[in-house]
Amino acid sequence: MNRRDALRSLGALATLATVAPAGAREMHGVPLQTAQSADHLPRPIRFGGYQVITSEADRLTLTAVFDRLIPADEFGPSASQAGCLEFLDDQLAGDYGSGKALYLAQPLDPANEATIMGAPQFLSTPRERYSAGLKALQTYAIAVDGKAFHELSAERIDEVLTALEAGQLSLGADVNGQAFFELMLQNAREGYLADPIYGGNRDMAGWKMIGFPGARYDYRPYVDRRGEDLQLIPVSLIPQD
Prior knowledge:
The protein contains 8 helices and no strands. The protein has one domain (3-222). It is mostly helical. The radius of gyration is 20 Å and the shape is globular. It comes from Proteobacteria bacterium 228.
């Protein structure tokens, strides 16, 4: 599973960039009328320890999974090194984790809903799904391999994740293994490519890898410069002094 290639392919959708000093002229003097109101400003991550993934066993299991989905190599750091666990924990502690945007009320016919929606539907929140899924992965590893999940070899972890992705490995009646794999993969990607203000994409490593110049106010100076290396340093939403 070459997940890093999947991430790098996103670079085709981004403006060409490098981490060299900026060489293109930028616009300054942003009109104050365009400023976001306080209730629409992005909420920075709350640092100071984990809020949801408080179990060390769960963190070790999730680190083992994320770092096989996005391993460290010559292109950049691994998912955990880039802050993807911190990103996910903060998301799970908020509206995403509580499923605020999801319809979670009964009645629900899982088979009927899955047919209509084209994917499994859940009454549990993302926070609950992670709690159950990580414990199920740990239970599986101990039962089958006789050791904790994070102690498995990289090759063995790949085997487990490949089987989960293909829907060929059962984590018990309460956990849809294939859907849980897809959830973890989605969140690992989000953490690696989201603005660093949310805790992941540390040092903008994900953006630098795919050549994305970040949250710039104005791209008008560059719209006609197709195929040109603009040498734009990525910019985050994190306020600069």
